Amino acid sequence: RELTAEDQIALLKSSAIEIIMLRSNQSFSLEDMSWSCGGPDFKYCVNDVTKAGHTLELLEPLVKFQVGLKKLNLHEEEHVLLMAICLLSPDRPGVQDHARIEQLQDCLSEALQAYIRVNHPGGRLLYAKMIQKLADLRSLNEEHSKQYRSLSFQPEHSMQLTPLVLEVFGSEVS
């Protein structure tokens, strides 16, 4: 409520894939390199990502990201705070009130650091590693956008894209 509708939309659209990648880490398994979607019968493996039209330029860094983030053994609270910090990035395209968004992000960063101090004594580098993962996400977002634009120009795929997907991952947002 503290942000304009325009800023809220800009933040949501430009961070959507990053939030999805962060959220999916909670269901990612290091054992079989798959994502569980509600139960053992609904799993997606790494090869399923290529079947969706993505190439190794996205897949390899995505798996590296998922493995690295999973190995941090984050608590659910840390995942949620990291997603919120990711969402409230003042440098997103289309954002107007950079100062307010930065202020909100700083509050979340302080909360995350406090949580880490209490729940991970001796985890001095954990916060830095988590923030590095946000930088990795930006690169993944760029590659995803590039591949999405490539897919959207292929007739066999473009008919399958829903209006919501077109709106969120449209060419004006990268």
From TrEMBL:
Superkingdom, natural source: Eukaryota
SMART domains: HOLI (SM00430)
UniProt feature coiled coil, ranges: none
Alphabetically ordered keywords of this record: DNA-binding, Metal-binding, Nucleus, Receptor, Transcription, Transcription regulation, Zinc, Zinc-finger
Keyword Electron transport recorded: no
PROSITE patterns, alphabetized: NR_LBD
Span of domain NR LBD: 1-170
GO biological process, one term: negative regulation of transcription by RNA polymerase II
GO molecular function (one): nuclear receptor activity
InterPro entries assigned: NHR-like_dom_sf, Nucl_hrmn_rcpt_lig-bd, Nuclear_hormone_rcpt_NR1, Nuclear_hrmn_rcpt, ThyrH_rcpt
Membrane-spanning segments: none
Family, per entry: Belongs to the nuclear hormone receptor family. NR1 subfamily.
Protein name (record): Transcript variant X1
Species of provenance: Nothobranchius furzeri (Turquoise killifish)
